[in-house]
Amino acid sequence: MIKIKKTLLRIGWLTLFTLIVFMLISGAGFCARKSVKITMWYSVGGNPRRATEALVKWFNKVYPEVKMKAVYSGNYEDTTQKLLAAVVAGNTPTIAHMAHCYAPQLVKKGYIQALDDFIAKDPEVSEDDFVASLYKTNVYQGKVYGVPYNCSNPVMYYNRDLFRKAGLNPDNPPKTWDEVYNVAKKISKLGEGIYGYDIERGSGWISQGYVWQFGGEWIKPDNSKVLWDSKESIAALSFMKKMVDDGIAVYKGGVKLNIGGKVGMVIGSTASLTYLEERCPYDLGVAVQPYKVRKMVPLGGGSLYMFKNISEAEKQAAWKFMKYVTNPINQMFWAVSTGYMASNKKAVNSALMEKRFIDDPRTQVTYLQLPYSRPEDDTWLAPFLEVRDIFNDAWDRCILNNLDPEKVLKEATEKANKILQEYK
Description:
By secondary structure, the chain is an alpha/beta fold.
């Protein structure tokens, strides 16, 4: 019954925003002119994909002088590789939707258009329109290269029903990693095949956050060397491995295990909220991430970037789209549809959003973490994808093959630092 009510509530919100958008469309005055064709490659599936397609459809109606074609180009990693190949071939899209953390390699090589002039000349847009921490993810050496589109941070999802069965208070989820261990231990005793915690690393951003929460740093500020062999980083991996070794956690259990109600707690993107809300047959809770030494969570998701090697007409059309999808109404629609954060400050601070937080407090959790959120690639490391693959492999091998954390991380550190030397 709770799930049905929540789903109906979200449908009601979406209906409201759809009506608002179509009223705006019907009230717009159109003039016939030759259209400018632009393309966007985007990297999100599921509900975010449907929301993106809706925004593109509405944009084409509001701006008939522009013909936007949006193409799904795979996940963040697939899209990054395709964009790098397109740059070499000289066949890039007009706009690239890609993960913030993979954009530096294109920005630093001069392929991405700085947006400062567009913002300065547009009376309808300013830096103050955006949530500050989200806007700054795209600022490099004083210039802004993208607009925040689908921003997220990981939150803790938990099965309130399993909490109750284990004699735990579902309204008081664990706040520290030590508490997570104790709670997971109790939940895992409920029966065979039930795990207190599912250790997911995602693309690597979640395990990167573990290192920060245990007091460590992932890389030096000047990108000269990674710091995975620090005592804090080793402590983070050792703690997670111990939970698996003790039988109270599973490593990379996957969505099916979580939806099946076999997991007490898991860290996942806030963007998973609508997906889980629609599919979980249990009372789903959402809480801020636990910490060990300090509160710190990775800020992930993606932004929209305009390529530099396009015509002026295409740039102006691309800017119209960037401005359109990040306006208050569309960001409200985006947040409700997907679970991602709204990047427009007016949307976040609106009476409608405040009411939404009251109706469903789970939707506010991601915003509560903003004061201590930190971009994944906050040092603007160009080979971030290549280097993080080494980090991910180290975590996988250590936990799945029961290897020594210190030895594995030392080897991974040496391997990654050799790559960093090549990029100097």
